[in-house]
Amino acid sequence: MKNKPGHIDFTTLIIKELSGEISADERTILHEWVAADKANEQEYHEFRKLWDEMDKVQGATSAEVDAEWKRLERLIDAEEEEYEKFSWSFGGFMKVAASLILLIAAGIGVYYVLNSNVASYQAVANVREVKLPEGTIVALNVDSKIKVPKKFPDDIRKVELTGEAFFQVARDTVHPFVVKAGDAVIQVLGTAFNVRAYRDEDKVEVTVEHGKVAVFHENKPGDRVILVKGKKAVLRKSTGEIIAQDNDNINFRAWQTRKMIFEDTPMTDVARIVSEVYHIDIRLEDSRTANCPLTTVFDNQSLETVLNVISSTLGLEVKKKGDIIILSGSGC
User: Fold this and answer.
1) 49: pLDDT strictly greater than 60
2) What is the arithmetic mean of pLDDT over 117-140?
């Protein structure tokens, strides 16, 4: 695909978002572009549909993948020859885009053929729930991915996490369940806990809902902390330091449940939590609003309802600017 000189390559940004490799700044640029024009929004959603087709390639045989590579080479060559014959319309764009997405899919298919013992599950735009073969249930937050052996070995159940997930581990006293999240290692027998381990954050947080969890740095297995219900551990990636403490965040699972409890909570924290739950940028226009307290409970309600309650309670006005929501007014 050829790019217009001097323009941002939004195709690359879309693919980076769908593959979980996009930065926060790039995501802002992409979604401003999507919101700016209906045609952009249509292109974006067409890409998502194409990306979803990649799952069908993962089970392909090596012969099928090889045949797909050859077919795609012919298709892309033909597209290059025809490129000068059509204007840069949405239809022509999507033909080339489809070739590119399918080429990526074929590459992923090759990876899965060569690594057939590993399955990968990813949440891109919405929370995704996965049930592992041995019964463990994993809820993945947006921009999160988990790698799981298609068949666990005889002695251990080990998975790898990038991003955030809530685990409800099937109890098995013989086979421990281990989560590797960056430099952190979490080991359990049967419990429920939340792990936050995004690549662009300097910490890994493990919060236990019930049961017992051991957390340690992969290079310091002897320096481990044991967590029980109501406790959490924070491991600093830069130093390897790990600290156990009480969990003072009653909304640590709000990203999954969409239940948010606010008890005299400052608006700066309310805006942050609602932003994380609904994956949108909410900002306070007036700094005097930051410390205004809010007491209410939201239980899996729409973003519109949440904003209406907040604005009417504190006398704020809701303004939308692309993917950004601005709450204006002096509030309390």
Assistant:
1) yes
2) 91
Q: Which two tokens stand for residue 266?
A: 């400052």
Is 90 exceeded by the pLDDT of residue 163?
yes
Mean pLDDT of the chain: 81
- pLDDT tens digits, residue range 191-235? 999 999 999 999 999 999 999 999 999 988 888 999 999 999 999
Q: Which residue has the tokens 């740095």?
A: 217
Give the E-state strand segments of the chain in sequence order: 118-123, 128-131, 137-140, 144-149, 157-168, 177-181, 184-188, 192-197, 203-210, 212-217, 220-228, 231-236, 242-246, 259-266, 281-284, 293-299, 317-321, 324-328
Say which residues have a Cβ less than 8 Å from residue 186's Cβ, sequence separation at least 6.
Answer: 178, 179, 193, 195, 206, 213, 214, 215
Per-domain residue ranges of the chain: 10-114, 118-246, 258-328
CATH architecture designation of domain 118-246? Sandwich (2.60)
Length of the chain as a residue count: 332
How many Å apart are CA 327 and CA 110, to the nearest integer? 48
Angstrom distance (rounded) from CA 198 to CA 164:
7
Residues 283-302: tens digit of each pLDDT: 999 888 999 999 999 999 99
Question: Rounded to two decimals, what is the model's pTM?
Answer: 0.65
List CB contacts of 137: < 8 A, sequence separation 6 or more. Answer: 129, 130, 131, 167, 168
How far, in Å, CA of 167 to CA of 126, rounded? Answer: 17
In the block, which residue shows the tokens 């369940």?
177
Lowest mean pLDDT among 82-86, 106-110, 167-171, 255-259: 82-86
CATH of domain 258-328: 3.55.50.30
**Residue 67 pLDDT level (bands cut at 50, 70, 90):** low
Q: For residue 15, what are its two tokens?
A: 């693919």
Which single residue is written with the structure tokens 């988990």?
A: 146
Across 161-191, b (16+ Cβ under 10 Å) vs e yields: bbbbbbbbbbebeebbbebbbbbbbbbbbbb
Give residue 197's identity as a one-letter amino acid code: A
